[in-house]
Design brief:
Distance between the termini: 71 Å
Structural class: mainly alpha
Number of helices: 10
Order of helices and strands: HHHHEEHHHHHH
Oligomer: single chain
Strand order of the largest sheet: 1-2
Shape: flat
Length: about 280
């Protein structure tokens, strides 16, 4: 009975078979979570565009090489989220950067392209783009069961592990439900092929889906309590994952190395070129 209480199989924490795609992954989900956290720490802790640019390039290579990640979906997600940010920081910082002492490269009325503005825009966009890239890698390369197993392996509280895993599972679930709702509207005579019609229908559809999601979450909570969720301090993993001394060493070394790099960069012991220095070198 105790072993059964540790294995959850209700919706949102799907129990996968021992031959599931997640079990063939190279890294343990706990290692992936640690690497994700370490990457985010370096992105926002080191004041140089070299780090986010490097991590962005590594994310592209990983997405192209990983059999668990659909490169097209990952690239489309990245473009949809990162492109508006590029436009926003480019206009606000690159064209309308405040300051009279900034070196002007081009001016047209109130708009002026300055070196300082471009440097800030470059740094901001690379940070956000790298964050989106690495988070999308984890989201597309993982599932709710892997996330739950990884957080449990890292000794996260059981409730937090469940909430994070369920949140990850809600994204494809909501996407599928929106698609079904649009198909139902089309069957009733709505011209859902038109973008304007879709945008007009979405508020009502999303409001209904949010209400249904809250009801489902309440039902899942009741189901979990009936199945003994939380009575076992360390429940059994939902999948089998490769783990060993190397990965345990990575889970210790990655955060320590990230903290050391951030501390060295902030204190000046580790010098990485800033965005202004890079732009100055490009200009000659």
């Amino acid at each position: 009975m105790t072993a059964m209480q540790g294995r959850l199989s209700e919706p949102g924490l799907e129990r996968h078979s021992r031959t599931s795609p997640g079990s063939s992954a190279i890294l343990h989900p706990a290692t992936e979570l640690v690497l994700l956290a370490s990457a985010l720490l370096c992105i926002y802790g080191i004041p140089s565009p070299v780090v986010p640019a490097t991590l962005l390039a590594l994310a592209v290579i990983t997405a192209a090489a990983s059999p668990r990640i659909a490169l097209g979906r990952w690239a489309a997600t990245f473009a949809v989220l990162a492109a508006p940010m590029l436009l926003m920081v480019g206009l606000i910082q690159g064209v309308f950067y405040p300051g009279d002492r900034a070196e002007v490269l081009w001016r047209w009325g109130a708009a002026a392209v300055t070196v300082d503005g471009l440097a800030v825009a470059l740094q901001l966009w690379l940070r956000v783009a790298a964050m989106i890239a690495v988070c999308a890698l984890f989201a597309f390369g993982s599932d709710s069961a892997r996330t739950f197993d990884g957080m449990i392996r890292l000794r996260a509280p059981l409730g937090i592990a469940y909430v994070c895993a369920t949140a990850l599972s809600l994204i494809p679930l909501l996407r599928g439900q929106v698609s079904h709702a649009l198909e139902a509207r089309a069957a009733r005579g709505w011209n859902t092929a038109r973008l304007g019609t879709r945008l007009g229908l979405l508020p009502g559809i999303i409001a209904g889906l949010l209400t249904a999601s809250l009801v489902q979450l309440d039902q899942r909570h009741d189901t979990l309590e009936q199945r003994g969720f939380g009575r076992v301090r360390r429940p059994a993993s939902l999948q089998e994952h490769r783990d060993g001394r190397v990965q345990r060493a990575i889970r210790w070394a990655a955060p320590l190395a990230s903290i050391a790099l951030v501390a060295g960069a902030v204190s000046g012991l580790v010098h990485l070129p800033s965005a202004s220095e890079i732009l100055g070198a490009i200009r000659g």
